[in-house]
């Protein structure tokens, strides 16, 4: 499935430096996104693996293939998100996994990007590695990003120039000494990349959620994350967190880009070159 275009989607290379955003808009967007993330965390926690409070597995089915799950929770959370955002920010269109892009999204200066349950296969199976992801995006990339991580009882939030917080507490990940001994998150990793990371005496972890994979870099649990396939709604919120935590985002050619298409690497600056070399070598 081709990712829906948002104001930051591009195939022409990296963007210019992001523009400042009105402080009042940032504060309001963070507040509303935080409320929606809390709502989503409650629903996902109550229904993980088919809990009977909301009947999560009712209406569960697949889309493109038998592993491409969708549930009533995905649909309900996205509808709720769209209703709230339409009331609070009527001039900002929404792009969502389940209901697509509003008509004005491709040309709007800002839009919201939502994945109501990132890691739906984990959610259906009862594995607590799934998340709600919401981001406000402009032509320079994510402006606000909020991730609800119900499995760990955390709401992660960031805004351009304001840093990254976990449950309201500022987070600054430690500076890694190198790749050796560290963890790298990956989704759909190439065998050569896994072998290269292991050869560098590091480990690869596949979480089944692109949003949570990138978030681990922001938290300092992993030094890098490599994603081969994803949509804007999978990564927009988490890329905001990672950027505000000091990580660098590059595309498959190694060029800095706030939200690349066709493969991305998120890494702390101290290990960026080493992980990128292993990634690019695996792609040859």
Automatic annotation (TrEMBL):
<feature type="binding site">
    <location>
        <position position="234"/>
    </location>
    <ligand>
        <name>Mg(2+)</name>
    </ligand>
</feature>
<dbReference type="GO" id="GO:0046854">
    <property type="term" value="P:phosphatidylinositol phosphate biosynthetic process"/>
</dbReference>
<dbReference type="Pfam" id="PF00459">
    <property type="entry name" value="Inositol_P"/>
</dbReference>
<keyword id="KW-0460">Magnesium</keyword>
<feature type="compositionally biased region" description="Polar residues">
    <location>
        <begin position="1"/>
        <end position="13"/>
    </location>
</feature>
<dbReference type="GO" id="GO:0006020">
    <property type="term" value="P:inositol metabolic process"/>
</dbReference>
<feature type="binding site">
    <location>
        <position position="115"/>
    </location>
    <ligand>
        <name>Mg(2+)</name>
    </ligand>
</feature>
<dbReference type="GO" id="GO:0046872">
    <property type="term" value="F:metal ion binding"/>
</dbReference>
<feature type="binding site">
    <location>
        <position position="118"/>
    </location>
    <ligand>
        <name>Mg(2+)</name>
    </ligand>
</feature>
<dbReference type="InterPro" id="IPR020550">
    <property type="entry name" value="Inositol_monophosphatase_CS"/>
</dbReference>
<dbReference type="GO" id="GO:0007165">
    <property type="term" value="P:signal transduction"/>
</dbReference>
<protein>
    <recommendedName>
        <fullName>inositol-phosphate phosphatase</fullName>
        <ecNumber>3.1.3.25</ecNumber>
    </recommendedName>
</protein>
<keyword id="KW-0479">Metal-binding</keyword>
<dbReference type="InterPro" id="IPR000760">
    <property type="entry name" value="Inositol_monophosphatase-like"/>
</dbReference>
<feature type="region of interest" description="Disordered">
    <location>
        <begin position="1"/>
        <end position="23"/>
    </location>
</feature>
<dbReference type="GO" id="GO:0008934">
    <property type="term" value="F:inositol monophosphate 1-phosphatase activity"/>
</dbReference>
<feature type="binding site">
    <location>
        <position position="97"/>
    </location>
    <ligand>
        <name>Mg(2+)</name>
    </ligand>
</feature>
